[in-house]
Design brief:
Shape: globular
Order of helices and strands: HHHEHEEEHHHHHHEEHHEHHEHHEHEHHH
Helix content: 40-55%
Largest sheet: 8 strands, mixed
Structural class: alpha/beta
Radius of gyration: 23 Å
């Protein structure tokens, strides 16, 4: 049957103009096609591990534009365009905040050393990592104000794409990767990200079988003998935001054993200790499972929020492998660091309590939301609590290493932590979330925005403004600037 493409295009625009209807159509088609598409693994092989080359944290830190006295770490949560716009607003406020002495002023964004991001937040992090200040010129047009979800739906509905969609080598995930690669990230690879000399960007995904976090860095790529430098940034972002059922996973071939990767010393020590209840033993086990090629010939990567929706675990796990934050600074050759600042941008929304007001059996959507959102929020709360405990411990370790003896009571509180007379490292934790907005009506509005890749211009405007205001009004942030 012949189809007039022009006529079909006009019909499609009329019939599928409703965002809600298009979202429903996209969901239905995605679910129908879940069982009839395969994934096509695309990750280039690595024959030799080269620690002085590639996308490693210590390589990025050496080329960072920031000062060595401040280690500024950001974490962007998941949450679709809602999270992307909220984190962008925070970056905007930081860009408009100047620090330094007269004649040497610079925007605070120049001090950012590290961004760990998940799902929607990974779009903003990756774009900023690649393009720096250009982000504030075109990112809204390129991504935030586009109906990305609608564009994907249009591609699914276009008959000319159906042969590709039904092939075993072109999935909905591959379609999303191609769209992001061509229209958002301009075919950039991790080699480009490393050469941008911006902050080190960690894009987090979840390995489906193991249920563990997989980060797109060369450290993780070495385990499965993959050359990350040739991997498109868009593929990592797609994996980080690939919601199960709606998208198939991003699949990577596990080539463990084909390069000269060696089990790291910290993992050997952790596994030898056999303290199975410890976090480091569990982390070492998950790392070595990635190296188990016999059982895990392929890695299937889904939404990073399933393992850590805040992006904080990447930092905590990294410090854990070094033993202490002092040893981490030494490993990164940052002995002059006086302040370590964590800024968490959390776009978490309110739980849906509508079902609690009715006697009827909850709908499928309500059940699905409860099965995903509730555990994620509880786990996120525990992650923040764990980080705060860790900050206190790192503060104590830093003081003991530099000053000796017990830590003075004046610096035991994370909130009041700072340099004492012995010049120990000061730790700061700043969380930016919707609950901190001063206007109750605006808080209610922000907390009820959906997790999607299609928001109105009004919603984007209000999210950006909220990110800026909440950061600007944060007392810990103002104390840090002072």
């Amino acid at each position: 049957m012949l189809v007039n493409s022009t006529a079909f295009g006009r019909l499609r625009k009329k019939s599928f103009a409703s965002t809600e209807f298009r979202r429903a159509v996209f969901t239905c088609i995605a679910l129908i096609l879940t069982g009839c598409t395969a994934t096509y693994p695309v990750n280039p092989p690595l024959t030799k591990v080269a620690p002085t080359e590639g996308y490693y944290l210590d390589n990025a830190i050496r080329h960072s534009a920031g000062t060595s006295e401040i280690l500024l770490i950001l974490a962007f949560s998941g949450g679709g365009t809602r999270a992307a716009a909220f984190s962008y607003g925070v970056l905007q406020e930081m860009a408009d905040t100047t620090i330094g002495k007269p004649g040497n002023e610079r925007p605070l964004t120049r001090e950012i050393d590290f961004i760990s991001a998940v799902s929607g937040g990974s779009f903003t992090a990756a774009y900023f990592g690649l393009y720096g200040d250009r982000t504030f010129e075109d990112y809204e047009r390129v991504f935030l104000r586009r109906d990305v979800q609608g564009e994907l739906t249009d591609q699914l509905l276009d008959p000319f794409n159906w042969p590709r969609i039904m092939s075993p080598f072109y999935t909905r995930t591959e379609m999303a990767t191609q769209l992001y690669d061509e229209t958002i990230f301009n075919h950039a690879t991790f080699k480009d990200l490393g050469e941008a000399n911006g902050p080190f960007i960690v894009i987090n995904a979840t390995e489906m079988t193991l249920g563990t976090r997989f980060q797109f860095t060369q450290n993780y790529a070495d385990i499965i003998c993959t050359d990350l430098s040739e991997v498109p940034v868009a593929r990592a972002v797609t994996a980080s935001s690939a919601v199960p059922l709606l998208f198939s996973p991003v699949t990577m071939v596990n080539r463990a054993g084909e390069c000269n990767w060696q089990e790291p010393a910290w993992a050997s020590h952790a596994l030898a200790d056999r303290n199975r209840s410890s976090r480091i033993y569990n982390f070492a086990t998950s790392i070595m499972e990635l190296n188990n090629r016999e059982d895990h010939r392929y890695l299937h990567l889904f939404d990073g929020g399933l393992a850590d929706n805040l992006g904080l675990r990447a930092v905590m796990d990294g410090v854990m492998t070094q033993g202490s934050f002092t040893q981490t600074l030494e490993a990164l050759n940052l002995p002059q660091t006086r302040k370590v600042v964590f800024i968490l941008v959390n776009a978490e929304t309110a739980l849906d309590v509508e079902s609690s007001r009715k006697m009827e059996t909850p709908t499928f959507n309500a059940l699905l939301n409860a099965a995903t959102s509730v555990p994620l929020q509880r786990y996120s709360f525990e992650t923040v609590a764990l980080l705060k405990d860790q900050l206190g411990e790192w503060q104590r370790q830093s003081h003991e290493a530099e000053c000796g003896g017990a830590q003075p009571a004046a610096v035991q509180s994370v909130k009041s932590s700072g340099e004492d007379a012995c010049k120990g490292v000061g730790f700061y934790f700043i969380e930016i979330n919707f609950s901190e907005h001063p206007d109750p009506d605006e808080r209610n509005y922000l907390k009820r925005l959906p997790t999607s890749f299609s928001l109105t211009d009004e919603a984007v405007d209000r999210l950006i403004a909220a990110g800026r205001q909440i950061l600007r009004d944060n007392s810990d942030y103002q104390s840090l600037l002072e």
